[in-house]
Design brief:
By secondary structure, the chain is an all-alpha fold. The radius of gyration is 22 Å and the shape is globular.
């Protein structure tokens, strides 16, 4: 049930692992798109703007949850690569305890503060109530977010990128059905879309848990392995919290940018909401590459196969470049028709909405290769165990989006909004690419010059094995 990523052609293994991950992400984006399409077509542009105005704060909180779960999975992947399954199970148990704690605290804090946050973001009055209703329900579903993402991360660490796809498919189809049930038939408005998302993810997470209990004997723990362990929690937090903060710090820039977009009016908010959903769908391959590289690098560091790190990263770069070119060419031709997926043909400002959405998407895809580098390199660094570097990259993204939002949007308007994310991606790459080279060199020094020393906590907790022949960058 597990896959070894420490031997064989790196690019072949990356493709084999990334394709199922991509399918899962596409299913995840599918139900996000269905939410947006149903809201936009059935409830109108104002409702679409209400949901879209919460995107940055949603990313701030839910992105932190997702990042923490991804970080918790890295020590698991490293122990799988090292063949230390007892320690792997102890990490899994303590990751579960930490996830329960994080989920409870975040649910309470965000539920109490969501209206205040929307007020600080200058959310337009005509969409404020809808935005508040939507994001409150999403925040109440944080435990479901932790449940699914932690389990999916553990499965990917074991080398199984297919099983999470099946449960995301289940979640997607449930979400589509529940969207219609709540929005169309029950008349619950935008809150119905949020309820559908939370319920479908919760059911998917519970189904995934039942499957893992039955089908993965490698995860069956002894009493000792189930015990709360302070050292394991420290290692998990040293990986999970920086990854979560990286998402949240990045989202701060998005929140400031969204506040600037809000000042342009609900029409522009709706266009950015539709354009963001479309480019996020197109960017799914980069997310799949990132998730793959975290597991790939984690397993190879655990197995002391440092020669394979640079090979895998370069192979993934090539895949990212090819897809980036294809995506840009496709959107140059089809951006306008794709924008109509989210817009009601009866909207009084349809022509303007269509043009604004198309411009946002084409501009974003023109800079897709920098986005590919961000995902590939950042997750590779995290898989190697240097998750604190992700925070620094997130800071650069935040600074870039903040600078555009506060300095350029008031002067250049919507055109500056379209270039905000590309500016953030390029800023992060200027740090991440040289940082990845430095991380590999540091690992080589640790494993070759001081083989008697234990691996630092952020890259593992057991003594390194001797390098195999051919080690290098």
């Amino acid at each position: 049930m597990t896959r070894d990523l420490t031997s064989g052609s790196p690019i072949r293994l990356i493709l084999q692992f990334a394709v199922p991950t991509l399918l899962g992400l596409l299913f995840q984006q599918l139900y996000n798109l269905v939410d947006t399409m149903i809201v936009g077509k059935l409830l109108g542009a104002q409702a679409l703007a209400a949901v879209g105005s919460t995107g940055s704060i949603n990313f701030f909180v839910i992105g932190f949850c997702t990042g923490v779960c991804s970080g918790f999975a890295i020590p698991v992947a490293q122990r799988v690569g090292a063949g230390d399954y007892s320690k792997m199970r102890r990490y899994v148990a303590n990751a579960a305890y930490l996830s329960v704690l994080f989920a409870l605290v975040l649910t309470v804090v965000t539920g109490l503060g969501c209206r205040s946050i929307l007020t600080m973001m200058h959310t337009p009055e005509d969409i404020f109530d809808g935005a508040s209703a939507y994001i409150f329900v999403i925040f109440m579903g944080i435990p479901a977010t932790f449940l699914y993402n932690l389990l999916a991360g553990i499965l990917r660490s074991l080398g199984d990128s297919r099983t999470p796809v099946y449960f995301l498919a289940l979640s997607s189809f449930l979400n589509i059905f529940l969207d219609f049930a709540f929005i169309l038939w029950s008349g619950t408005g935008v809150a119905g879309a949020a309820i559908a998302t939370v319920m479908s993810q919760g059911i998917s997470g519970l189904a995934c848990l039942a499957y893992m209990v039955k089908k993965y004997p490698i995860l069956r723990m002894s009493r000792e392995e189930r015990q709360l362990d302070g050292r394991s929690c420290k290692v998990l937090c040293s990986m999970g919290i920086p990854m979560g903060l990286q998402y949240s710090i990045t989202a701060i820039g998005s929140i400031i940018l969204q506040a600037s977009v809000n000042t342009l009016g609900s029409t522009y908010v709706a266009a950015v909401a539709a354009g963001t959903k479309l480019y996020q769908l197109l960017a799914c391959p980069f997310d799949a590459m990132g998730a793959t590289m975290a597991t790939y690098c984690g397993q190879n560091v655990g197995a002391c196969r440092l020669d394979r790190l640079g090979q895998g990263i370069r192979g993934c770069f090539l895949l990212g470049l090819v897809y980036s070119v294809l995506a840009f060419l496709a959107m140059m031709e089809f951006a306008a028709p794709c924008a109509m997926l989210f817009l009601n043909p009866g909207e009084p400002q349809l022509a303007l909405l269509k043009e604004l959405t198309s411009r946002y998407v084409v501009t974003s895809t023109a800079f897709f290769f920098p986005l590919a580098l961000v995902n590939i390199v950042r997750f590779s660094i995290q898989g190697m165990g240097f998750s604190t570097f992700a925070i620094l990259a997130g800071v650069l993204e935040m600074v870039a989006r903040t600078g555009v939002g506060m300095g350029l949007v008031p002067v250049f308007g919507y055109s500056a909004v379209c270039f905000a994310s590309p500016a953030a991606w390029i800023a992060a790459d200027l740090f991440l690419v040289p940082a990845s080279i430095a991380c590999i060199r540091r690992l080589r020094r640790i494993y070759t010059n001081r083989p008697e020393q234990p691996i630092p906590a952020q890259v593992g907790t057991s003594r390194p094995k001797p390098l195999r022949a051919g080690a290098g960058n």
